Amino acid sequence: MFKELEAGTVQVLTVDREVDFGYFLTNGEEDVLLHHSQVEGEIEIEDEVKVFLYHDKEVRLTATMNIPKVQIGSYAWTEVVDVNSGLGVFVDIGLMKDILVSADDLPIYEDLWPAPGDKLYMSLRGDKNGRLYGKLATENIIGQITRRASKEMLKATVQGRVYRLLKVGTFFLSEQGYRCFVHENERRQEPRLGEQVEGRVIDVKEDGTLNVSFLPLKQDKMGEDADIITGYMDSRGGAMPLWDKSLPEEIKDKLGLSKASFKRAMGKLMKEGRVYQEEGWTYYKK
After folding, report:
1. Which of 20, 137, 150, 264 is buried deepest, with most CB atoms within 10 A?
2. Sequence-distant (≥ 6) Cβ neighbours of residue 243 within 8 angstroms
3. Which residues contact 213 (CB under 8 A, 6 or more apart)?
4. What are phi and psi of 140, to 5 degrees?
C-alpha cells in the first residue's frame, strides 16, 4: 500500500524517470520532481531515495535529498531570517524556501517578535492545502528536552533562548538544557521571543528548574540606578522634581525605578556629596 505524498514528511521513493531538469520519483501512484540541484550523490532509475517533501515558491510539491531537522512532528532550533509586519516571521530550515511562522502564533505586540538572527524551537504543520508553516514548541515539548539542575547552579550565570512570554515573566531554555524563569520584577525590559539572553541564577527549585534574574547584583545595580538619576538630572539642567518623599508612581514614570531602588541610589549620591534635596526637588551640589 502506497503512502500519500505529503509536504513536511520524509519518504523513501523510487526513481521513475529522468528529465532535463531532474528526476521524477514515484510511490507507485503519484509522482514528484526531484530537481538536479536537490540531488546528493549519484542516483539511477529504479533506485530508492530518501527525500523530504515540500512546496516550492510556485506552490508545487517538490522533493529534496537535503533532509532538514525540522519536520512535521520533529523539533529543532531554526534561525529567523526575515520579519513581515502583520504576517509573521520567516525561518530558515535548510530548504530553498523559507518557512513562515504566522503572526497568530507570535506575541500580540510586534516589538516582542523575533528579529533576524533570533532562534525558535519549532516543528512544522500543514494547512488544509498542504502548505507548511512553523509550529512553535509548547511547554510540554520543552519539558521533554530539559534536564534537572542541581543546587550547585545557584548564583551561576546562564545563557539561553527565550521560548515563552507571559505577563508575569519570561521563560527561556539555557544552553545546558535547564528551564529558566525570570519574574517581571527581575528584568528591566521584556526580551523578544527567540532572543539570546543571559542572567544569574537566584533560586534552584525542587523540580530542577531555575529562577533567574536579568538585574545586576544590588551593589552594581545601585551604581546603574545612580547613573539613571544623574542622566535625568543632566537632561533637565542639573535638577529634577523628585526626592525621597515622592510617590512611587512618579518615580516609576520619570525614571523607570522602584521607590526602593531610587532611595538606595539617592542615598549613594548624597553620601558621595554629589546632590542635595530641598522642597520636593533634587539638585547637584556646586
Report:
1. 137
2. 266, 277, 278, 280, 281, 282
3. 182, 186, 187, 199, 200, 202
4. -65, -40
The answer to whether the pTM exceeds 0.85 is no
Segment 217-245 shows an average pLDDT of 87
The yes-or-no verdict on residue 2 having pLDDT over 60 is: no
- What is the C-alpha to C-alpha distance for residues 267 and 69, in angstroms, rounded to an integer? 55
Strands 281-284 and 275-278: antiparallel
**Length of the chain, in residues:** 286
What's the mean per-residue pLDDT of the chain? 92
Identify the structural domains of the chain with CATH numbers, from first to last. Answer: 10-64 (2.40.50.140), 76-137 (2.40.50.140), 146-213 (2.40.50.140), 218-284 (1.10.10.10)
- Residues 179-229 have pLDDT tens digits of 999 999 899 889 999 999 999 999 999 999 999 999 877 656 778 889 999
CA dist 62 and 237 (Å) reads: 66
Grid cell at residue 183: 519574574
CB 6 within 8 A of CB 36: no
State the burial class of residue 122 (Cβ atoms within 10 Å of its Cβ: 0-12, 13-18, 19+): buried
